[in-house]
């Protein structure tokens, strides 16, 4: 007896007879609790958690699932209503045959050869672009988003559609090309939660794991609202009680008539939901439509705004905006649920409430959003972003110095992450960070904002600068590779456990002379600074008047001595790679290029 099954038949009856069922998954507490409920139901057939239905009803649902909990009205509605697949075209996307070769996260490649706004297959073919948006499913998200991937579709996908495998066969299957580069409704075939549909307004292609429905414009918002309602989740629970949603499942959804006034209301709510969701998606730098870090949105040139030069005030404003967006989306989704519950006559079976965890826009999070600001700062240092130019300023292609006025990027594609101050110029990360805070929030507020940041990120140190420095040394790269799904665009040179040398570089600015420059302009000067610091520490330790801090000085002396040793051991390893003048091709993606430069896990931090 397997009591963990979704249903349990108490009595065997003919196929056209009545069956009695109990939904064991509704009872929490494990198999013992479920066993007790079954025994209780056997002893008392009138108990209120039993389901009774005529088994002939199961044939009314596509696939004849044993959906014993459905009402007779719902069985009737499913049987008599036209189906989604009869009214609209649903399709699965294509198979590349080799995802490692043909698919990238959008931020890996050169943005200059990425086409994100083309509206026809022919326009894409005649363009200069190689990479195009690729709807590949993704995490649970409604209305808009999951725009993470691009596919190599240069010259109408010629390479993808003609590449053969080692058996001489073409493994790619480019299905349904009449529908690409058009606005469609898409969804994730496999979900970790419930079904969620989105508007694919990025004019791209579709993967097999990102199925889509070609719905005419006059019905598109209505159908998107329907697919994201809890009515559809309830119906899919009958048709396919799994989290693997294929096109056939959507095809089987019953449709009801919607009058003009209700259509107008649905259209308005869905349009607003798309805007709310896209605004949320684009406020983070993982979006190709990202413009500016949200904590800087209310900073005026003279700093005399409601922020008042205080980063803490900026976060408070952002927190309110994010919460308002969350609340509005939740209210809209509940209103849509009310509409569709009423249309489908499911008032006795469903309620319109939406749980917070089902709302797929993000509330503010102080630690996450402050760290996001630190990431944006790193992007400014390398010229990926500019305080003068919304969105991407440089991500491959031609460098333009005219884009940078308020905050000029580092001349070299390198930024040291020392655990103490050794330079008073652009080589030191905290010098750059203080400049950034002065430019954005005002010179007079730098220390106050440093104190706030140090408090939020929670690193223990003697002062705010050391706390922030410690975050960059210890945690920034970990957070960065996590946020960029183990495809980091800022790479961390790492000499070892003593942090003799830690430094960041920006992948898109790399050239073959990068490592030689790092040795001559950074590693050798840093070695000299270590030697000077060691000499001073030795003098202080030997000073007999120094007693209270002697142990601390000895500890520091030992640490810097170890750093110097580690740096010297790192130098020939770097030289070996530098002499190869390795070329990186952004089209190859992060993983391939990282391994080229990594030289057997010796140069860079592991990803």
Description:
The chain has 607 residues and is of the alpha+beta class. It has three domains: 63 residues, no CATH class; 182 residues, no CATH class; 197 residues, no CATH class. It contains 19 helices and 14 strands. The strands form four sheets. A four-stranded antiparallel beta sheet has the order 4-11-8-9. Strand 13 and strand 14 form a beta hairpin. The protein is globular. The two termini are 47 Å apart.
Produce the secondary structure layout.
Blueprint: E1 7-9, E2 18-23, H1 31-43, E3 50-54, H2 72-80, H3 84-87, E4 89-91, H4 99-102, E5 103-105, H5 121-126, E6 131-135, E7 149-152, H6 154-162, E8 184-187, E9 197-200, E10 205-206, E11 212-214, H7 217-227, H8 230-239, H9 247-251, H10 260-282, H11 311-343, H12 366-382, E12 415-416, H13 429-441, H14 446-457, H15 464-474, H16 476-483, E13 490-494, E14 502-506, H17 514-542, H18 550-578, H19 589-598
Parallel strand pairs: 6-10
Antiparallel strand pairs: 1-2, 2-3, 4-11, 5-7, 6-7, 8-9, 8-11, 12-14, 13-14
Helix pairs in contact: 7-10, 10-11, 14-15, 17-18
Rough shape?
globular
**Whole-number radius of gyration?**
30 Å
Please report the total strand number as a whole number.
Answer: 14
* Broad structural category: alpha+beta
Helix content: 40-55%
Low-pLDDT sequence parts: 1-10
